[in-house]
Amino acid sequence: MIEEMLQSSPGLYNFAIFFLFGVVLLLVVLGFVTYSILAERKVMGYMQNRHGPNQVGGRFGLLQTVADVLKLLLKEDIIPKVADRPLFIIAPVIAFAPSFMVLATIPFTDKFQFADLNVGLLYYVAISGMTVFGVLLGGWASNNKYSLLGGARATAQMISYEIPLVMSVLGVILLSGSLNLNDIVHAQKHGWFILLQPIGFLIFLTASVAELSRTPFDLPESESELVAGYHVEYSGFRWAFFMLAEYVYLFAMTALVTILFFGGWLAPFSFLSFIPASVWFALKFCAVLFVYLWFRSTFPRMRADKLMEFAWKVLMPIALANIFLTALIKSLFF
């Protein structure tokens, strides 16, 4: 019955296929979130001379994050009496939904991508900017001064660092001549853009850490000042939505760095092209992910005023100079 209905309606059939792939991607991302948290805790433990999780799930603690997720799902869902109830409920969803939507345009290999958009990079930037509304609404709806201050910090930080983030990839766009992520990957056949755009890469990496609100730019959640920041009043699965959004964005941003600066799924040398494209993408992805985890274990948290000054007074001028230099070099030598 279902098979006949799908065959009689091609549009419905295509929708079912894409829905199935979407569910598979969601499960893959949830698996990544589960074990990236575990990897982060193990890496931080190693760097701080600790064991990290080593009880639940064997000597490597492979089920520790699974146990933590189950604990969150079983915890009581508390909504403060003085909170703005509708906004309080919808804010985590608004924060999470864009983080999953941006994955649609990420080309993991030349054959695995949901939407090959001509403006894929622009789509990523535009959709990811919507998360700030969920964070701000969560801080406002909680009717708590710490939440509100955390939400305001997050809004100022995300807007400020998104400008140098976008400006840092203009050099990549100039060299590739396209906003299509597949075209950007193919433009790196003869050399990764990290070699041609080292300044742009450093700016992008720094700004992306701030966009993800990770150490040393985790001012919206700084527990030493704001208890827990914009989600201090959240508990259970609603709090988990905010954390899920952060790690899904970590997945997406790591993939984007791999595509923009490390050639995506392309082999670094032609004689290594016999290795599957998915393997190359996974190796580069893991290397970039390790850098993000490494940063969290290494740098101290910045002061709020220094954080904003760094975006506007340091990253912005350097990004502008990088655009000018790239345009000049391209006009003279390409």
What does this structure look like?
- The protein has 334 residues and is an all-alpha fold.
- 69% of the residues lie in helices and 0% in strands.
- The chain contains 15 helices and no strands.
- The protein is globular and about 65 Å long.
Distance between the termini: 59 Å
- This entry's quaternary arrangement is single chain
Main sheet specs? none
Low-pLDDT residue spans: none
Report the strand count. Answer: 0
Rg (CA only): 21 Å
The secondary-structure element order is: HHHHHHHHHHHHHHH
Number of helices: 15
By helix and strand content, what is the structural category? mainly alpha
- The percentage of residues in β strands lies in under 5%
Q: What is the approximate shape?
A: globular
Mean pLDDT: 86
Assign a percent range to the helix content.
55-70%
Family: Belongs to the complex I subunit 1 family.
Enzyme class: translocase
Protein name: NADH-quinone oxidoreductase subunit H
Subcellular location: Cell membrane; Membrane
